Structures
1.
Amino acid sequence: MSTATRSLPRTIGAHAILLTYTVIALFPVILVIMNSFKSRAGIFGAPLTPPTPKTFDLIGYTTVIGQGDFFHYFQNSLVVTVGSLFFVLLFGAMAAFALSEYRFRGNTLMGLYLALGIMIPIRLATVAILQLMVASGLVNTLTALILVYTAQGLPLAVFILSEFMKQVSDDLKNAGRIDGLSEYTIFFRLVVPLVRPSMATVAVFTMIPIWNDLWFPLILAPSEETKTVTLGAQLFLGQFVTNWNAILAALSLAILPVLILYVIFSRQLIRGITSGAVK
Amino acid sequence: MAADIRPKRPFRWHIAIFLAPAVLVYTAIMILPLAGTLQLSLFRNIDQHQVFVGFDNFRTLFGDPNWSVNFWNALRNNVWFFIIHMLVQNPIGVLLAALLSSPKLRFSAFYRTAIFVPTILSFVIVGFAWKLILSPLWGVAPHLLDFVGLKSLFTPWLGKEQYALTALSLVSVWQFIGIPMMLIYAALLSIPDEVIEAAECDGITGMSQFWKIKLPLILPSIGIISILTFVGNFNAFDLIYTAQGALAGPNYSTDILGTFLYRAFFGFQLQVGDPNMGATIATIMFLIILGGVCVYLFLIQTRLRRYQF
């Protein structure tokens, strides 16, 4: 039917462009991982070839595992990310429900107030946040990071979720009310399951910047106990500027967990991002 | 309805309970510290006391050569950083999304997944990986340029003042291209089939269909991406810090407002941290971002027609 719109040269052209860009996107990642399994001579002699039995070497990994406390940093990052994500989704969905479901005085104003944080980055408040955390004794705790990231993630979460909650059918909620469900039950039992795809979108948008953030861990929680994996990797890489084996191995160790998670969840993740479009 | 006749309904506690946690955390951790930061910019620490000095800190920032040289340099660099993003990241993002959204394109899930990979990596990984690739020590970049016969073009970009900022901006573009791509892709998918079919009936296909039908429909998304890029760029920090350190070398040529704020507020090497000057810079960044957002909301968004399907 639509053969007129598609011709062979055009399809080939599209694939050529997409493939070129895919190579550009993946090349640095593959290059780093590939070279992390090589000896020093292999890294410098032939950087673009995969490791051969002659150049294969795990010296980089043994150095890294002997030196850095990556597992511990990884755990910290996980606690912070999961903790913040939980609060952002729970509090965000609750506020979004209140704003989209009920008409009350100040509704629009409250929505605008919460939306302010979408555009104004919390980073600008750092000076006073540090003072606040010092005053409340939360410096160098993971709690400080979770609090900050929850505040950071809430505005966008409320905004996106309230858009989606407006689409949940009123008949369904009213049927629930007639059956005697409380407002809380309607929210948790009826509405939340229906907006789960958009919760995934919010989770993705919230999670990536938290996991990758360097600014707040650097300023609020730089102690050895509370270092996140991003900060740990940064400091570690700074120390080993001349040991290329160790750097490449450390980079690979930082890339791999994220990459594996991404490959497993990419389908849900991308469906989440585009779900706004293809309801 | 009874509720409409009575002027006051009983207070609906559940609304307050639904709103309270979000509003409390947001106000306590974000809004109050933001206000506190703006306030701090009007004070100065004199003999261990915070003294109100009006706009003196701003005068120092703009006029005192110790600060103003670095400040204007950082601002200029930041504008350039943003221009590169707008000129490179968004057009490429739109192009990739347009190609991806063509129906029945094979492997589109694979392309989507692969092109989004850099976006999920942290700045530390991206900064260091590119630092290694562009390093003349390793020789990957000259080696690759040799393949296309352009080896003579290679210089250690990150180490040269005139190239370093552009090179880092492009690295940042490389990292974030997935976001405009995905948002535009979602917008393109949301265009109803009837519109496209109507266009095809009128003989509008291929490129002209994209320019005449799809592009006007995704303009609101492009507006959103532009303002997101603006906000993201004017508070960027991590990539520069990772690749070039807090001093944003060589010779401050990659210094942007984020790194400048970090040095002023936290101190670095010989420089002692000064929370009040830090707050002053943060206030300027706040005003820049607020200005950008207002331009978007009042000038751009109101002129874009939104199409409701």
2.
Amino acid sequence: MHGQRSRFLTVMITVGLAFFYIPMILLVVYSFNYSKLVPVWGGWSTRWYKVLFQSEEVWSAVSLSLKIAIVNATFATFLGMLAALSMVRFGQFRGRTLFGGMLMAPLVMPEVITGLSLLVLFITLKQVFGWPENRGFATITIAHITFSMAYVAVTIQARLTGMGQSLEEAASDLGAKPFKVLTAITIPRLMPALVSGWLLAFTLSLDDLVIASFVTGPGASTLPILIFSRIRLGLRPDINALATIIILVVAVCIAIAALILFRQQQRDLLDQQLAKREE
Amino acid sequence: MIEKSNVNDTTWHTDDKTKPLVQIKGLTKKFGDVIAVDNIDLDIYQGELFCLLGGSGCGKSTLLRMLAGFEYPEAGTIKIDGMDMSNVPAYERPTNMMFQNYALFPHMTVEQNIAFGLQQDVMPKDEIADRVHGILKLVELEDYKKRRPQQLSGGQRQRVALARSLVKEPKLLLLDEPLAALDKKLRKQTQFELANIQEQVGVTFVVVTHDQEEAMTLSSRMAVMDAGKFKQIGTPTEIYEFPETRFVADFIGSANIFEGRVSEDGADHVIVSTNVGEVYVNHGQSIAKNKKLWVGLRPEKIHLSITPPPQIGPNQIMGQVEDIGYLGETSIYKVRLKNGQIVDVTAPNQRRPMSRTHSITWEDAVYLSWEPESAMLLIS
Amino acid sequence: MSNQIKKVISMNVKTLTLLPGYLGRKIQKNWRVIIITIPFVWLLLFFLFPFFIVAKISVAELKIASPPFSKMFEWTGNGILSVRIVFDNFIYIITDDLYFNTYINSVKIAAISTFFCLLFGYPIAYGIVRSGPLAKPIFLFLIILPFWTSFLLRVYAWMGLLSDQGTINNILIALGIIEEPIQMLYTEFAVYIGIIYTYMPFMILPLYANMEKLDGSLNEAAADLGSRPINTFFKVTLPLTMPGVIAGSLLVFIPATGEYVIPDLLGGGNVQMIGRVLYNEFSRNTDWPVASAVALAMLFLLVLPIIVFQYYQGKSVEEK
């Protein structure tokens, strides 16, 4: 499907990209606005960044969100990997349909339902076992792991299916016991998928508002909860500044990822040339 | 390897030719409703290079994978060196496999790939290094040990895969289409290399292939498989010259087949009357008179001439050349018999056809004849 | 007797010393079970089990207590276990116009947004597929990029554009097209814009993945057989990209129906969607039984049909 695009398609891409990016660009531009009223231009200034950095509330929300995101990504990747292995490599087992269904359901489940059901679970657990005492870090993390492991599992399943089984069979044939096969062959081969799964889970966690709002308790505000509580009341220049910083961080991270990918491609190209020369 | 071999060192002798190394009895494997391997018996002896030949889906790969321990049979047993393999997982079997697309670990160097199997056993590091070095020398890849598989050519990868599976000194080496991924020219060259290496190391090889030429060149003994069953087992010569069935005769090489009935059963010969006349076959076996069977004739075993053969007798038919395929070293003649059947005949082009007058050409009436030893009796 | 005990003890000691090796072998043998069990138990506990609790609450009565609902099982004075199940909540949400209309409205808004995502997303995805080898990854990257930035902030960006003193109104006034600002924020229009804006990548990516796999020679074959480009598009390309259309539409439609943030921020109080009603019922009115009933109704009316559909879709693909 390569070849020339018609003028119509070029126009559509251009309009589409403009639609995607103009709101973001304006968001960034207005973060440098001196005026307290966001849409009214009052000259260039960085005062809202100072306001932002001096806010204790913002810092604690950022740190809570990052902590949750990191723990969540790590556990979700681990559980997602085990789940993907179970689905792709183990053939039939009892309860496989139920397992597969539970694994995929969070992908289509409206967030309000997931959030509501997890909250009633935590409340029931507290009544019966006295745990969790307070809702916050632990409950949000558990909720995030539950829905983000589904996304990780999908990523890893795709990779596992694409990889085929012959390398694992070869290792087993050479005398590697199942656990050794897992650590020496499967996991190294899965690395790219594990990394992207981790990043995906990390982002999903950082981005989640609805589920976190349900399962959090008083005093524990993640960054999205904080942002939401502020922008519900209208436009706020300090949120523009925060948005700019987030966009910058994401852009830098993606640039690094792109660089790594580019290097990898270069290396593959070199390998191919080397292999060709041997023929 | 160490823990594996001491289990049965006392009973195992390399020069024991009488006791089979691999004993397969009543082996059956189904995938859903499809029977992949159907009640198979087979013995493979120490030092053999045994080929399993068959079309795709005939069950040859399944059989190999059951030997390796990747599939478990529904019924029947596999014994390797007298030991029942039913409950032995792949990683504890005294077999190693060379995979169809080599299955080299892309995240390891050539050296690491080869050492991987040895590292799974308790073995001192320097011994591992020695064995890896030795095997690299055997496959002539010493200069490439630091490379990763992606940086090697197809032929080199094939040799790494062979080295990796040989370095553990398995009792049985299983090769799944070992040459299929190579281009045609390299494949021919590698066939001989592979046979040489097998001779040097003395390990028993079981090779799965769909390429009959490969099977013929490589094997000391081979089995032709179809629909999960063995059609015939024997040396390449036996299979080619004495096929028992139409399937085998047609699968290995090509054959002209005539239906007939036994009209005379002598001590050293059989006469079969077919729709193209009587065929005299030198054949030791006694076959009941009037039994329906088939006569097979290889195209290269038939003589073609414009002049009648010196004496009139059996094993002669007349026909007319309908088509000629010129292949360079040989030509294929399609000869139409009186009853309309087309017979293929190949003849070497020993002389350059300087003048067209002496050579056989289209529409020529020709005589076909063959030696009594040449015709093959096919019982089904 | 004592001898027997000794025997048992010595046997146990023996087994104990063997244990590490035994355990190791046990793990090797049952490693599959262990690998399956960990995520399985997690999902049972944190995904499936909560739904049973929600189901239980949905058949309870509202009570001023903590938690705010009646108990299903209760011991009455004479040691008799009484079971209380009431379906009032379900009857309430079916008969009450608010819930019914809200549900219909959510489906309507999600469906229209999905349609527009498809209308704009399809040519964009097709355009990317038809781009050169250099432009293609750049375009793809630009489509994916917003996904990695905050969803909430992307919605917020539109608040700045659509508000009464927002960029769009400012420009229109400056150009003299209008004199008074048009109200765009806190209308259904704003909700549509928000959903289309945030969910567009979920439409484009599956479409792209599907189109990328299409064999380009099919188009050439159609042209060679005398088909004009427009005809080729409707007769060849569109039918073959239907799986991508369905996947993309589901990925937009499902979450859009249950959307809470966008109707709240861009719709204000003027646009009722089921996700927002559920949230408010739960946290503002603390009517847990009704909220649970709404959640279950949503689950059965929205999620189950889709799971069943996808199950059969997957099956028919496997059969092919």
3.
Amino acid sequence: MSLELKNVEKKVGIDTHIYPTSLKLEKNTINVLLGSTLAGKTTLMQIMAGLDKPTTGEIWFNGENVTGMKVQKRNCSMVYQQFINYPNYTVYENIASPLAITGVKTDEIKERVGKVAELLKLSAMLNKKPDELSGGQQQRTALARALVKDSDLILLDEPLANLDFKLREELREELPKLFEDRDCIVVYATTEPSDALMIGGNTATLLEGKVIQYGKTLEVYNRPENLISAKVFSDPPMNIAEITKSGDNCKFTNNDIQWKSSAKIKDGTYKIGIRPHNITTYKEGNNPVEINGKVQISELSGSESLIHFTNGSLNWVSLSNGTQQKNVGENTKLYMNTDEFLYFDQNNRLVNNG
Amino acid sequence: MNKTINQKAWYFVIPVFVLVAFNAAIPLMTVVNYSFQETFGNNVFAWEGTRWFKQILLSERFHASLGRQFAFTFIILLIQIPLGIAIALTMPKKGWGVPVCLILMSMPLLIPWNVVGAMWNIFALPDIGFLGHSLNAMGFDYNFTQQPGDAWFTTILMDVWHWTSLVVLLSYAGLNSIQPAYYQAAEIDGASRWATFRYIELPKMKKVLTLAILLRFMDSFMIYTEPFVLTGGGPGNTTAFLSIDLVKMALGQFDLGPAAAMSLIYFFIVLLVCWVFYNLMMKNEAQS
């Protein structure tokens, strides 16, 4: 089983919503579409589902061209950011609805709904109406409706975005387990890099209607092909600065900070990307380098401290473990873990990391 | 916290009190006053107790006009609500068609009621009116000034023309507030058009439809101007709805006592029906 997009493009009027995209999703995988709002995640999903037709290009499912085939014939299910359930159906009827329409026998419906409800911890609420449930339970009901069908393709469009923090964490942990033993392809759209990392599987980074990179989630995170992919897959935003390298010596263009690099790249000018957690108030890695900063914003979350600071004309973001109390305007010393620097050439392509 | 006692604040209530007194309480009390007394000239009154109420409640004339009123309201609700929903469903959701449809729909609502009556009167005249003449030319024996059935048909057609738009606009607003994801979810489930309507659109429109039914009930139950101008309650008494009958009694025959009693009964019927209907709808709401 596989889902393949071949040069799919979507235009609405003169606007291009999706630039020509080719993507192959394999069976039994969870695929994260990671990108900010308007990156084209939802459009791409609707094209995958058959809710929307691509302007050009083809969609192949299991070696069959399904371009233009209606969604009803595709055996897919979708969960939305909003909690979409039939308002005057009970939870049971809601979960049963996709089965009832296709004419599954009552006994079988009962059994399958029971199973899915148990999996999603809805067994006690089967006789309630969606309005009587909490947001988390409403979304569980919507998820149950998507799962009960045994779809080949399950699309989740920011399913956790409307939930509060606690419920989101809880459901996010459960999600990958729900799909573990299922013979299906899961596509999960999100704006949060942390979602992608927790869900694992594969990730496609998207920006403004283009798929930037697709691969195993950790690989995309650790070895972004280019600067754009690195930026999309970084929260808080990645620090970017220009450097010059001659021999082993590297130096920032805008200040005097220097360090030794073992990166096997030619001498010249590069851009480096530094993830915020590689600038900390304490030394980390084998070659830490000191940087002075003037604190602009300091946010404490308890387990982590986010410090925005300036050094010369550049703005930097650092993320340290623990509570690191800094006052705004204070001059402070921070350390950069040079082992984790990402080096990009003038065309923004990754040349080396470390 | 210490509560400050300031009885002077009551003074601020006085303007509202006076306003309500003049526009609601005093006129209503005048009617109540009339309903319990016999009126002679020169402001001479005699106490009659509940005589007028009994007389009205037992009178065949009142029963007949109340019956006509319920029949009329029932028929127009039966036509306007489904028709309004149906039109709203076919209206475009985006593009240039939206303002065009909305303006076309609100046109009838903007026309003064007596003009609507006069318009339809002329429109339906069997000799010169477009509708009346055309129907006769097609072989129908149509004359709304002489045949009760034709008078009813014309009155109902006029009301449907005048007021269906209100239901359309309310339903349209209700439909537009449904997120597109609901339709997609239904599509993915493979739900039929009817199922989508029955299980998504109708439940989501419930609140605006409650409002539409309530508004249309009250307005049609109190209808006066349009049928008065169109048929004047005729032929005979066949289209004399409650309010037309009431005005005939009060100003035509100058039976102020019975007319006052009738207005109060009329008022209580409207209040009762609205109250019952609203509570039923809200009870359902609380359950779901």
4.
Amino acid sequence: MADERDLEIDDLINNLDKEYYSAHPTANSSYLATHKSRDLKSLVRLWISERTCPDILPYAHDLLDTMLDRVREQVEVIEVNTTSGDAGGSAKLKLLFVETEIERVKFLVRGYLRARILKIDKYYMHILNNLDMQTRLSQSELRYTKRRGNQLKRYYDLRFLSSLPPSLQRLDDTAGGLQMVDAPGLDEVVFVRVLQDVPGEVDLGNDDKIELRKGNIYVLPYKVIRRYVDNGDVQLV
Amino acid sequence: MALPPKQVGTFIPSEISFLAENSLVTIIPRQAMESIELIGGTIPSMRPMRRIEVPIWVAVLLKKQSRCNIVPPDWLSEENLKVTYDAEAANMTRFSANLPWEWVEVGELILGSAPDDLSSPPHVIRNLLRDIREVRQAKARAGLKNLNDSYLQLDNVGAMELNEIRSFVTMAMNQLRIMQGTREGPEQQDVDVEPDDQDDDDDDDDLPRESYDDSMRTAKGYQDSYGTARNSSRLGSEFAGTEDERASINSHSFTKSTLNRSRSALPQAPSYSDDNDDGEDEDNDMEMDETYLNAVNGN
């Protein structure tokens, strides 16, 4: 008797579940399984990579545009929901999540751009002399770099360069085997984590060879690991 | 506005923690709530007692409002932490693989926000986490002795732990590379090495190189020391070379004169500053440990 009743209850619950999930097809989809979360993950990776990579990485136009569009959409959601006067407890809570997440995304975007500006400021002269570098910048970054270059040049001229002999006035002198222009140090070491096994060994130059196996964490010069970072076998951490 | 200096080339602990907040955790909602569309995904609709996975930052917010209980991950149970601690203590040359990448941060987040959801008293868990952390920090520091100019392997290190040694390791390795003269291009800079050290080992047989004058001989001394160290550079395999070789690393590789001449010396590495003989190694290690710990703890 008791068993029968238990069975009935179980059936009822199961049926309820079925009804519920057919009415809400997304209800059971985990947070992970969406393309949205993939985009957010890419943004996080982008931020980490830009912060840890000695070189300037190509600007991620599409991803940034998508994310900023979504931020705007979410801001609209907030505006609509706060003006509609429907401010019950659960609506407020919902807005709290939306707002918190907007701030989190904006933090990532800001961090990404600031990390880039840091490197752009440092290597502006190299960028201005190098077309490949210029293609990695966004329009506004390139504009900024050019203006900064011009302004600094004018300023130095005005303050002291004009009073030096003409042979010493250059800002990109290479005399004496010394470069005045700073370029990103591709030889600097980076921390990487291997995402998937790479067949064969990686030659590090000086007689060292290492294997890249999933889960390995290495500290290596960026230049030897660069192509594996680019094709996604390893990630900067 | 570019990045503030303290965030250049590394992350600050709060940033590492921010990243960990994106990882998922299982919660048991106490109330029903509609699903919420977010930029990075959808928080599924909640029904009381039905477990769902959400990012930790969502879980922490819900927990703050007593709207859910957090289910601590398996590795965070007292039992598993004890196993992990034993595994860590049993092998002082390797990090165990029992902990996830973000274990420090996730542990702190859950202890901080949901101490009542843990299966054991919070202070027990906290102490175990601290013990594990200390054991692992000791390994990380011991492993720093193996630093060389080529590579370093740190399997199973955590995100926070990695970030703590990041500045030091990066600076030291870049510096060693300069000393090795392997830097190419415009940044190349000759490093003058004082020919003041005569006790470099003359074990050159395996290094086919042309003859050097006196000052280069010392430079070759580096090569030998690091060549040896390099062979055992897997963090946690045997530590570099013999006592003699270690002494020679300590005594000439980080002399002040060398550092001052080369670019971007190691300003935050006090232990490696002056000449020191064997007897002082211990003291210096201690000093280094303290500074390291302070840096780590953000003091």
